[in-house]
Specification:
mainly alpha
């Protein structure tokens, strides 16, 4: 079985909705357990007090990226069936700035606001109301902001395509950037700790996870490099030409027999099988 299941038609619409419901339920549960239902914890990153958001988001990016590339490489994932949003510079730059400003002011992003609202936090309900109001204003002003909304459209673009590099190399670079961010927040994000844990070489879940991420990332570099290497073409030896045998001359006065035609081919049992006309391969 190859993923993704719903786009490839392996599961129906009803099963897809059920899967989405339970995946969203588990996602919200773990966000709440991680403390991301609190606006104070979420906004602490902007005041350089708590780096949990950066670490969790970077970990999610690295895990999803490595998993997607490995599953695609071994044939368990159809990369063409995965939805990739188009790159539109105007809409995404302005939308990203507005989302960041709303995150700082309101203390939530759309996903964490739903988690906080499920926990009964009143500020989350106010934030969700603001999202609905912003959606209404966007719909009302769409004709006016449409040029900005479509400015810088580049179609579907991925980072390896833009940089002109193989996906494995880009993945390894992202893993190294994530590990550097983890180390930096461990060193400068714990002023009360005399000896940051990043310099301790004993085996811990954090160090084991970092080593595994590096190993998998550079395994992608090797795998994609081998896959993109041109395969040598093996020349096939041509069969030796058949040697013509001399035909004995007929005796004088004899009449030459007519040349024998090809032997008749026996019809298959059940009559002649008719083949349907196929599509042209051009």
């Amino acid at each position: 079985m190859k993923a993704p299941l719903y786009p490839l038609g392996l599961i129906g619409e009803e099963a897809g909705f059920i899967a989405v419901f339970f995946l969203g339920l588990f996602f919200g549960f773990f966000l709440e357990r991680a403390g991301f239902g609190s606006s104070k914890k979420l906004t602490s990153i902007f005041y350089f007090k708590d780096w949990s958001v950066l670490r969790v988001m970077f970990t999610a990016i690295v895990v999803a990226m490595i998993g997607l590339l490995y599953l695609t490489g071994i044939g368990w994932m159809d990369g063409e069936a995965v939805t990739v949003k188009e790159t539109v510079l105007g809409a995404q730059i302005v939308g990203g700035l507005l989302l960041g400003a709303g995150f700082i002011i309101g203390g939530y992003c759309p996903g964490t606001s739903a988690v906080a609202a499920a926990s009964g936090r009143l500020d989350a309900f106010a934030y969700i109301g603001g999202m609905f109001a912003g959606t209404f204003l966007f719909s009302a002003a769409y004709d006016w902001i449409q040029p900005l909304y479509h400015w810088g459209g580049m179609g579907v673009k991925t980072l390896p395509e833009v940089l002109g590099l193989q996906p494995g190399l880009v993945a390894a670079a992202v893993v190294l950037i994530a590990l550097a961010a983890f180390a930096a927040t461990e060193i400068w994000g714990n002023p009360s700790v005399e000896s940051p844990r990043v310099w301790q070489v004993r085996l811990t879940p954090h160090s084991a996870g970092a080593a595994l991420a590096v190993l998998l990332a550079f395994g992608l570099v090797t795998g994609y490099a081998m896959a993109s290497r041109p395969q040598p073409v093996v020349a096939q030896s041509a069969p030796a030409p058949a040697v013509a045998r001399p035909v004995p001359a007929a005796p004088a006065g004899a009449v030459a027999a007519p040349a024998a035609g090809p032997a008749p081919v026996a019809a298959p049992p059940g009559g002649v099988k008719k083949f349907r006309k196929g599509k042209s391969c051009s």
